[in-house]
Design a protein that fits this description.
alpha+beta; two-stranded antiparallel sheet; four-stranded mixed beta sheet; 51% helix; 156 residues
Length: 156
C-alpha cells in the first residue's frame, strides 16, 4: 500500500487557530506523515505516494487526493453529521482526562485514558467504514486521520 507524503489543512472559513491549536495541528500532521498507509482504488493508475488536502466545506469533510507532483487524483466529501457526536464525545473525555491528570490517582487516570482510547478507536472504525470504496487504509492511519478531523474542530 502506498502512503501520504504531505498533508495540507484547508482552514479557510474557520476561526484563526490559537498558538496551542496550531501546535496540535502540526503534531497531528507530523504523526500521520511519520506512519501511514494510504491508497486509492485506482492505485494501478495512480500508485502514489499521495498528497492529501483536508478541509471542511459547507459542513462536509473534504478529502482532496493528489499525486506527489500535485496532479489531482480524487476528491470526495463526507458528511460531518456522523462525526459530530463522536468528536464531541472525544473532546469531553479528553477534557476529563486532562483534569484527572491534575488531581486523580494513576488508577483513575488509566480508566479515563482507556475510555478515551475506546472512543478514538470507535471513531477510527467509523471513519474506515465511511472511507470504504474511496480510500484504502489501515486502522492506525484511520486513527490518525480522525485526530486531524478533531483538530479541524478545535476552536482557538
Amino acid at each position: 500500500m502506498s502512503r501520504l507524503i504531505a498533508i495540507d489543512i484547508d482552514d479557510r472559513g474557520l476561526p484563526a487557530p490559537s498558538a496551542e491549536v496550531d501546535q496540535e495541528r502540526k503534531v497531528a500532521v507530523f504523526d500521520l506523515l511519520e506512519d501511514n498507509a494510504f491508497s486509492i482504488p485506482r492505485a494501478a493508475e495512480f500508485p502514489g505516494p499521495y498528497r492529501l488536502a483536508l478541509g471542511v466545506k459547507d459542513g462536509r469533510l473534504v478529502f482532496g487526493v493528489a499525486t506527489e507532483a500535485g496532479d489531482k487524483v480524487a476528491e470526495f466529501h463526507l458528511s460531518m453529521g456522523p462525526f459530530r457526536q463522536v468528536v464531541k464525545d472525544y473532546f469531553q473525555i479528553c477534557e476529563s482526562y486532562f483534569e484527572a491528570v491534575k488531581k486523580l490517582p494513576p488508577s483513575q487516570i488509566e480508566t479515563i485514558d482507556m475510555a478515551r482510547r475506546g472512543v478514538h478507536n470507535d471513531a477510527a472504525e467509523m471513519l474506515l467504514e465511511r472511507l470504504d470504496g474511496k480510500v484504502e487504509t489501515d486502522f492506525a492511519t484511520a486513527r490518525r486521520l480522525f485526530t486531524l478531523i478533531c483538530v479541524l474542530h478545535i476552536r482557538g
